[in-house]
Please model this.
Amino acid sequence: MTESQRETERKYEAPSADDTSWLPDLTGTDVIASVVDQGTEDLDAVYYDTDDLRLARASATLRRRTGGSDAGWHLKLPLSGDSREEVRAPLSEELPDALRELTLSRTRGAELRPVVRIRSDRGVRQLVASDGTALAELSVDAVRAESLLGAGTRAAWTEMEVELAPDADLGLLDAVEKTLGSHGIGRAHSPSKLARALEETGVGAPRVPDRRAEAVVPGSAGDEILRYVDERVRALVDLDPAVRRDLPDAVHQMRTTCRRLRSVLRSYRSVLDREVTDPVRDELKWLGAELGAERDHEVLRERLAARIEELPRQLVFGETAARFQMWDVGDTSEARLRTLATLNSPRHLALLNSLATLTERPPLRGRAARPPEKAMRKAVLKEYGRLSDRMAHALDLPPGTKRDKALHEARKAAKKTRYATEPARDALGKPAKRLGKRVKAVQQVLGDHQDSVVARDAVRTVALAAHAAGEPSFTWGLLYGQEQAAAERAERELPPVWAEASHRALRKALSR
Model:
């Protein structure tokens, strides 16, 4: 069993832990009314990582700590700014499986082992508001670090932490830092105890040539595309533990990240060698499809639940709510199990390894060294051309199943066009941004249409089950009609929205 909390803190250099006369009085800083001494704690933590320090390199830490009020296993994952998410598990001799799984996107299956032991004598003070509310905790630590990788080297230093209480105003950290700075106390040069321990004990992975730095020309097409790919790969790695913990919108975000990566690797084949990237694209497609079962059901459940809720009570016959719940629970459980099995599979770990290799040793083609404008303009216009062809085909078809399928294909082409514009915005400027925005509008209308198609299929399936059980199916027929009307409405909205995205002036500006 695990629990998590958001941790927001800043670290500072501190001259001494025994004599704290250097520490300024923070009473009166912002809303701090008093500083309350909480005594001392003896903390003993063993940090775990792979031999090549994959967790540390990804700004994550895993430790087993005894002493203090929160003894146990702690996994810290990076968030924005001064914040991290700390996932905790009870103290045990062995690493809990739940935490091990949350590290997999960063370790990629490599063995975890003890790398550093850090012991701290901690003096704790609470920063308290006038009403007695704890605002933050200030601690001064006398730290002793020891390498566990064979060398046995040691290091010692003193540091100070200021950690916000949950829901405390982030501005308090700025106010405290201003007071500390006025007394000559500056930020620590390392972001964490582990980072400093690794540095000062000489622990580290063997140095290898930076093949990427040798191959990439700064400011080139390859440089621009790889920067985008790096961001998406980091997002995929960060989202993996969020999906495992079933955090809101995590599956959707991870699936979208897969699509963005696939699309860019496809669109920019002139920059990256497709013999290397095509197999990666195939695996991203597989991952997106496996995640799709859970995400598609999530979207459909929310849509149909809202439809049922909006119906007048006199039009809801029979066991509609119970029948909907039966459908929802069955499909949700199956989709969730499928997602977790996918993330724990060797195939997923192999994909993560492939993505790491792709970013560390990018398969750049000769054109990658050239300025980005030409390659990016060509890629965007090529995707835009495919979208135009599919839209023309779909709009020429009469309403019906064939048109539904053609509009869905056009929707996928719209996504690829939009994603192709994203890494090109710096190089191509406003025309690329404008095209991306207008194509997104097309994509949204097409998405509404496709959602209605999927919803009608689901409603029909549930209606058949209700009918077979002798239940009234009137309500399901009504819902089906509403979805049919939604599809027709989307088809009416589409031509003018597409006209905006296909305007001649926009194409001309992009082609310059």
